[in-house]
Design a protein that fits this description.
- The protein has 215 residues and is α/β, with parallel strands linked by helices.
- It has one domain: Rossmann fold (3-Layer(aba) Sandwich), CATH 3.40.50.
- The protein is built from 8 helices and 6 strands; from the N terminus they run H-H-E-H-E-H-E-H-H-H-E-E-E-H.
- The strands form 2 sheets. The chain has a 4-stranded mixed beta sheet, covered by helices on one side. Strands 2-3 form a two-stranded parallel ribbon.
- The longest helix is centred in the middle third of the chain and has 16 residues.
- The two termini are 23 Å apart.
- The mean pLDDT is 88.
């Protein structure tokens, strides 16, 4: 099934229906989660449909302590099978000593996020992510399925409205990320995230809006 056919088939389905249909069309599914402010929605949906699905967490070593606590909380609450994916130790050490995030954030993201994921992608047919059109201008035009180099990407909640996402968390008694109460609407690595609405707190005063995984 080509990309256009997939988008046509899945476009009118609910997020849960999309996930159920996915396992009929694909067998080797890569599911990544940042355990960020909206992550609980997709984690909960996948847990309902296929509780055995592994969740890959990109451990950059620069996450907020609150994000790691949230990861542990959701893992226990939902009974998740989480696999930590880490960068090469010597490269990560270089970015730490060099403070690469302040000089070349694209390089820092490449070393600590993109490269580690690129190493595991060949084992999968499709890559699932919780991107939403409401998060920034780059994501507004994304479809349910998109081609990303040599892998198809699947965004089951891409068209979920912000109001709906908040309602989903409340209706399913899902805890919010601890930093939401402190003014963080989006949470990434500690050096490149400040308080802000939407994703305005990410890479402040830079043209950068994405870590490189979704470009």
């Amino acid at each position: 099934m080509n990309l256009d056919s997939l988008n046509e088939k899945y476009r009118t389905l609910s997020p849960e229906e999309r996930i159920r249909a996915l396992y009929g069309d694909f067998s080797r599914v890569l599911f990544t989660s940042s355990f960020g402010t909206s992550s609980a929605i997709l984690l909960h949906l996948f847990n309902k449909v296929n509780s055995a699905q592994a969740v890959q967490f990109l451990d950059t070593t620069y996450h907020f302590a609150e994000t790691l606590q949230y990861k542990d909380q959701l893992t226990e609450l939902l009974g998740l099978h989480v696999i930590d994916v880490q960068p090469e130790e010597w490269k990560n050490k270089f970015t730490r000593e060099d403070h690469t995030w302040s000089k070349d954030p694209d390089l820092c993201c490449s070393i600590n996020k993109v490269e580690p994921l690129d190493k595991i992608k060949p084992g999968f047919e499709i890559w699932v992510s919780g991107l939403m059109q409401t998060q920034n201008s780059h994501r507004q035009s994304m479809n349910v399925f998109e081609q990303k180099e040599d892998i198809i990407k699947f965004y089951p909640i891409i068209d979920m409205e912000e109001k709906t996402s908040k309602e989903y968390l409340l209706l399913n008694n899902l805890p919010p990320h601890p930093l939401v109460a402190h003014g963080f609407a989006s949470v990434g690595c500690i050096h490149c995230t400040v308080k802000g609405r939407g994703r305005e707190g990410r890479w402040v005063n830079r043209s950068k809006t994405e870590c490189g995984l979704h470009l």
